[in-house]
Protein backbone atom coordinates (compact mmCIF):
# COMPACT_ATOMS: atom_id res chain seq x y z
CA UNK A 1 0.00 0.00 0.00
CA UNK A 2 1.48 3.39 -0.98
CA UNK A 3 2.29 6.00 1.61
CA UNK A 4 -0.37 8.70 2.02
CA UNK A 5 1.75 11.54 0.72
CA UNK A 6 3.06 9.69 -2.34
CA UNK A 7 0.15 10.74 -4.58
CA UNK A 8 0.66 14.43 -3.76
CA UNK A 9 4.39 14.05 -4.37
CA UNK A 10 3.75 12.26 -7.68
CA UNK A 11 1.27 14.92 -8.83
CA UNK A 12 3.68 17.72 -7.93
CA UNK A 13 6.50 16.00 -9.84
CA UNK A 14 4.27 15.48 -12.87
CA UNK A 15 3.22 19.14 -12.95
CA UNK A 16 6.78 20.38 -12.36
CA UNK A 17 8.08 18.23 -15.21
CA UNK A 18 5.33 19.39 -17.58
CA UNK A 19 5.99 23.03 -16.77
CA UNK A 20 9.69 22.50 -17.38
CA UNK A 21 9.32 21.09 -20.89
CA UNK A 22 10.74 23.42 -23.53
CA UNK A 23 8.52 22.91 -26.58
CA UNK A 24 5.98 20.74 -28.38
CA UNK A 25 8.61 18.25 -29.55
CA UNK A 26 9.90 17.72 -26.01
CA UNK A 27 6.34 17.40 -24.71
CA UNK A 28 5.52 14.81 -27.37
CA UNK A 29 8.66 12.80 -26.52
CA UNK A 30 7.76 12.96 -22.83
CA UNK A 31 4.20 11.76 -23.44
CA UNK A 32 5.23 8.94 -25.78
CA UNK A 33 7.99 7.86 -23.41
CA UNK A 34 5.79 7.69 -20.33
CA UNK A 35 2.30 6.81 -21.56
CA UNK A 36 0.93 4.06 -23.77
CA UNK A 37 -0.75 5.01 -27.03
CA UNK A 38 -4.10 4.03 -25.45
CA UNK A 39 -3.49 6.39 -22.49
CA UNK A 40 -2.56 9.25 -24.84
CA UNK A 41 -5.67 8.51 -26.92
CA UNK A 42 -7.90 8.57 -23.81
CA UNK A 43 -6.34 11.82 -22.59
CA UNK A 44 -6.68 13.39 -26.05
CA UNK A 45 -10.31 12.32 -26.39
CA UNK A 46 -11.19 13.85 -23.01
CA UNK A 47 -9.55 17.10 -24.11
CA UNK A 48 -11.51 17.05 -27.37
CA UNK A 49 -14.74 16.40 -25.45
CA UNK A 50 -13.96 19.44 -23.25
CA UNK A 51 -13.47 21.50 -26.43
CA UNK A 52 -16.77 20.28 -27.84
CA UNK A 53 -18.53 21.19 -24.58
CA UNK A 54 -17.05 24.70 -24.75
CA UNK A 55 -18.41 24.88 -28.31
CA UNK A 56 -21.85 24.10 -26.84
CA UNK A 57 -22.19 20.65 -28.40
CA UNK A 58 -24.74 18.52 -26.59
CA UNK A 59 -23.93 15.36 -24.66
CA UNK A 60 -25.79 13.39 -27.33
CA UNK A 61 -23.72 14.91 -30.15
CA UNK A 62 -20.49 14.11 -28.29
CA UNK A 63 -21.69 10.58 -27.56
CA UNK A 64 -22.51 10.03 -31.22
CA UNK A 65 -19.31 11.62 -32.57
CA UNK A 66 -16.92 10.03 -30.10
CA UNK A 67 -18.64 6.96 -28.69
CA UNK A 68 -18.02 8.35 -25.21
CA UNK A 69 -20.33 7.55 -22.31
CA UNK A 70 -22.61 10.15 -20.79
CA UNK A 71 -20.99 9.70 -17.37
CA UNK A 72 -17.55 10.53 -18.75
CA UNK A 73 -18.88 13.55 -20.62
CA UNK A 74 -20.62 14.73 -17.47
CA UNK A 75 -17.39 14.46 -15.42
CA UNK A 76 -15.50 16.45 -18.04
CA UNK A 77 -18.26 19.06 -18.17
CA UNK A 78 -18.40 19.40 -14.38
CA UNK A 79 -14.61 19.86 -14.10
CA UNK A 80 -14.25 22.32 -17.00
CA UNK A 81 -17.49 24.33 -17.17
CA UNK A 82 -16.95 28.03 -16.80
CA UNK A 83 -13.18 27.58 -16.70
CA UNK A 84 -11.40 30.65 -18.11
CA UNK A 85 -8.31 28.46 -18.59
CA UNK A 86 -10.06 25.96 -20.84
CA UNK A 87 -11.89 28.72 -22.68
CA UNK A 88 -8.60 30.48 -23.46
CA UNK A 89 -6.90 27.23 -24.48
CA UNK A 90 -9.56 26.49 -27.08
CA UNK A 91 -9.71 30.02 -28.47
CA UNK A 92 -6.12 29.80 -29.71
Structure description:
This protein has 92 residues and is mainly α. It folds into two domains: 1-34; 37-92. It has six helices and no strands. It has helices at 6-20, 24-34, 37-54, 59-66, 70-80, 84-91. The termini are far apart. The model has no long low-confidence stretch (mean pLDDT 93).
What is the topological layout?
Blueprint: H1 6-20, H2 24-34, H3 37-54, H4 59-66, H5 70-80, H6 84-91
Helix pairs in contact: 3-5
The total domain count is 2
What structural class do you assign from the helix and strand content? mainly alpha
Write down the secondary-structure element order: HHHHHH
Mean pLDDT: 93
Instruction: Report the strand count.
Output: 0
- Global Rg: 15 Å
Work out the helix count: 6
Helical content stands at over 70%
Shape: globular
Spans of 5+ residues with little confidence (pLDDT < 50)? none
For this structure, the quaternary state is single chain
Largest sheet, described in full?
A: none
* Residues in β-strands, percent: under 5%
N- and C-termini, Cα separation: 43 Å
